[in-house]
């Protein structure tokens, strides 16, 4: 490409024309598209210098808040709908497989492996709920040796890692390994809706946009099994007022689950959900299915 000077009309070509030889093909594709959309955006809105400064300051504060404990950039991606979009374009599952959703920042590797039926609620707060279901393959056959890794907030709407001095370690977390019948069963609590961390720039942005920071009540699951695709998902509580306005756009209709009221002193609710895993190798037809 002939090198010229930067002009408004030729801005994209000028930037992309500076690439050296042997640039990775995928990098060139992704960066090229990014620059072209970014320039089109700035031209469309006629971005002012003070708006550009606000954006730079916002991104700077977002980065400054990131640490081992906090990932404000992922939170930004979440509230922009980008996390769910990346999930959607990367996990076009075959029909019948359980839908995935956003991973979120509160998973902790290495939760205790518990016995079927165990109670994961260690702080004694909340309404007790029996969670039951099976891990199945696309043919409806039980999956033996699946790991159902579960995590959830407590009755006050906080994960154990957000309150290390108040909640017992591994509160509302555990891993359950299925046998040949594919079944899992544990006790936990009926989860509550809670706000995403909103004391930083992302929370400020939500405020300015007139958006609330709440997520509808949900339980997180990471389901893994040999020869099957890893499934990152939640189940949501039917009837939750935030189902259609989740601050991170994580809700899918197929994941909304009824909680059945039990006539029991000890366990007040039951929630049943079967996870259907897609096979590891989608084969020559690809994973798109439909
Ligand atoms: C969560 O559900 O744990 C979560 C997801 C995205 C952002 C913040 C929290
Ligand atoms: Fe969550």
TrEMBL record:
Belongs to the intradiol ring-cleavage dioxygenase family. Residues 131-159 form the Intradiol ring-cleavage dioxygenases domain. The keyword Manganese does not apply. PANTHER family: DIOXYGENASE, PUTATIVE (AFU_ORTHOLOGUE AFUA_2G02910)-RELATED, INTRADIOL RING-CLEAVAGE DIOXYGENASES DOMAIN-CONTAINING PROTEIN-RELATED. InterPro entries: Catechol_dOase_N, Intradiol_dOase_C, Intradiol_dOase_core, Intradiol_RC_Dioxygenase. PROSITE patterns: INTRADIOL_DIOXYGENAS. It comes from the Bacteria. One of its GO terms (molecular function) is ferric iron binding. The keyword Membrane does not apply. One of its GO terms (biological process) is catechol-containing compound metabolic process. Pfam families: Dioxygenase_C (PF00775), Dioxygenase_N (PF04444). This is 6-chlorohydroxyquinol-1,2-dioxygenase. Its cofactor is Fe(3+). Keywords: Dioxygenase, Iron, Metal-binding, Oxidoreductase. It comes from Nocardioides eburneiflavus. SUPFAM superfamilies: Aromatic compound dioxygenase.
